[in-house]
Write a structure and sequence with these properties.
The complex is a heterodimer of chains A (about 500) and B (about 50). Chain A is about 75% helix and about 0% strand. Chain A is mainly alpha-helical and about 500 residues long. In chain A, strands 1-2 form a two-stranded antiparallel ribbon. Chain A is rod-shaped and about 185 Å long. With about 50 residues, chain B is an all-alpha fold. Classes of the chains: A mainly alpha (about 500), B mainly alpha (about 50). Chains A and B meet through helix 1, helix 2, helix 4, helix 6 and helix 8 of A and helix 1, helix 2 and helix 3 of B.
Chain lengths: ~500, ~50
């Protein structure tokens, strides 16, 4: 519409912004539009949504650029579950007034929540599906779908009305009344709803008054753009598909998954690892004990071998020492013998251990010197040994008597005093051996009786074999039966003097 | 007395979201001002025809 004076366009105003002319027709039109807007707003405040829609539509018929009326109409459509109609009104509103228009925010809010938009579209599709079922005379399926629809969108008036009508058709008047009453709570003066309710009451009778005095479930917010909010009803539809709730759901799922892993899988893995670890420990322990055992065995073997080695070393050393000393003494004896000093030569020969001489030539020389010096040395050696016995130096006596027996193994007195010395030292075995040797080898000796007496004193040691004097075999080979003759002579010479000593013991 | 068949026929399918654009274009946006302008145009046209 243009100003009748300056022909400038008048958009949503009745005073020309260019010439200031007041257009009376435009003023009446705008006033009428605003009056219907106020009527619509008042009806919306008392939840007369259908009446509000009528008034607001009338307002827009007068002035299509009445942004407040169009925005409120969109809100009421949205409240009634008519999403597409609401979006249409808001888009047109933004088309007429791009700036300072809250409809842009409403559109933005819907576009930013695609999940909710998808859910709303799903509600519409289900309603249309239910309507198809109705047209196909399949009321049962239609009722099922409509129940889902009103559950998902509790303010969808058309769904309530259709559901109520289907219940009425099936003569389920209580259910129909219940559904229609919910529709009335959303939209108080909807003519269709009220007509259906009236028909239900006519067919089924009026329901009893609510004696619990329940508070109205709806609350009106005092706002220039009123939005009706429905308070807690258990069957109200709630959208849980927002982005934040999706994130929360994913987070809860992750936490539950982690808890399941922690409670079920981790203990199993830990148990398996512990079992493997224990098995490994047992195996390693067995290996360690086996190796310790081997080490002990090897240590024992080392100890034994070391002891054997030291023994062999000492034996070899002694043997070498004995052999060396014997050779030295033999050389000295040869020297003395060549100087015709038979006493010294014999003494040195008596000190040599016959077994230490292994060389045949040396042994021959040893025997030659021994035979040559025996007569002149034996008595002296016996006297020295007897002197040691008398002095109760039995070790020296044994050493001396051994030398005597080396020079003359048939020297019966030396045999007897060997026995006596051992007996005095407590070596009853050797003592008995020498006594038995004396008794068996020299039965005619005047010391035999004494030997028997001492042998009896020794008791159970009489069974021990007679002692074999080292080197005696060599002597017997060389000397033959001459020794026994010499021995008897010695016995006769020395028997009387020594017998007394022996008997005294 | 309600005629159920007739009442059921009154229920029409709702428009889905992807049909919003179509609904906007179909919306009749003519208001009283538009009607008055049309009337004035017609008046002008009629008066013009009378002059010539």
């Amino acid at each position: 519409m243009n100003c009748i004076k300056c022909n400038m366009p008048l958009e949503n105003v009745y005073v020309c912004p260019h010439c200031g002319h007041v257009d009376k027709v435009a003023k009446k039109i705008i006033y009428s539009s605003n009056w219907h807007y106020n009527q619509g707003l008042a009806k919306a405040k008392v939840r007369d949504l259908s009446g509000a829609v009528t008034s607001l539509s009338q307002s827009l018929k007068y002035n299509k650029r009445n942004t407040d009326a169009r925005n409120l109409l969109g809100l009421i459509y949205y409240q009634m579950g008519e999403i597409v109609a609401a979006l249409s009104e808001w888009v047109i509103s933004v088309h007429f007034q791009e700036r300072n228009n809250i409809a842009a925010d409403y559109i933005q809010a819907i576009q930013n929540n695609p999940a909710k938009l998808k859910a709303a579209n799903k509600v519409i599709q289900k309603y249309n599906l239910a309507l198809n079922y109705v047209q196909e005379n399949n009321a049962d399926l239609a009722i099922i779908e409509l129940k889902r629809v009103v559950n998902m969108s509790p303010t969808y008036i058309r769904a309530y009305q259709l559901l109520g009508l289907l219940y009425m058709q099936r003569k389920q008047y209580a259910a129909a009344r219940k559904v229609l009453m919910r529709a009335v709570k959303v939209d108080r003066n909807n003519m269709t709803t009220l007509r259906y309710l009236k028909e239900v009451n006519r067919l089924h009778g009026k329901p009893e008054k609510n004696q619990h005095g329940r508070k109205d479930e709806f609350m009106q917010i005092n706002d220039p753009n009123p939005i009706v909010i429905e308070e807690g009803s258990g069957q109200n539809y709630a959208d849980y598909n927002t982005g934040f709730l999706s994130f929360i759901n994913i987070l809860i799922g992750i936490v539950i998954g982690a808890a399941v892993i922690w409670l079920l899988i981790v203990p199993s893995i830990t148990k398996t690892k512990a079992s493997e670890y224990n098995q490994a420990v047992v195996e390693y322990s067995a290996q360690i004990s086996e190796r310790n055992k081997n080490i002990d065995d090897l240590q024992t073997q080392i100890t034994e071998l070391q002891s054997k080695l030291s023994k062999y070393e000492s034996t070899v050393g002694d043997t070498v020492d004995d052999a060396g000393a014997s050779e030295q003494k033999l050389i000295e004896a040869i020297g003395s013998y060549l100087q015709n000093n038979l006493q010294d030569a014999g003494t040195l020969i008596a000190e040599i251990e016959p077994a230490a001489i292994t060389n045949a030539q040396e042994k021959k020389i040893y025997n030659i010197i021994k035979e040559a010096t025996k007569s002149s040395v034996t008595e002296t050696l016996y006297a020295n040994a007897k002197d040691s016995f008398d002095k109760k130096d039995y070790v020296a006596a044994i050493d001396g008597m051994t030398k005597v027996l080396r020079m003359d193994d048939s020297y019966s007195y030396a045999v007897f005093y060997m026995g006596r010395s051992y007996q005095m030292l407590g070596d009853t075995g050797n003592a008995a051996g020498y006594y038995k040797r004396l008794i068996q080898s020299y039965p005619d000796s005047d010391l035999v009786d004494d030997a028997r007496k001492y042998l009896n004193q020794l008791g159970d040691t009489t069974s021990i074999d007679p002692v074999d004097i080292s080197g005696s075999s060599d002597n017997s080979e060389d000397t033959g039966s001459d020794n026994s003759e010499d021995n008897s002579g010695d016995n006769a010479d020395n028997g009387s003097s020594d017998n007394g000593d022996g008997s005294e013991e | 007395m309600i005629n159920f068949e007739e009442e059921l026929k009154k229920f029409k399918p709702s428009l889905e979201i992807d049909q919003a654009e179509e609904a906007i274009y179909k919306n009749d946006l003519r208001d009283v001002t538009d009607i008055l302008e049309d009337m004035m145009k017609e008046v002008k046209v009629a008066s013009g025809n009378k002059r010539f």
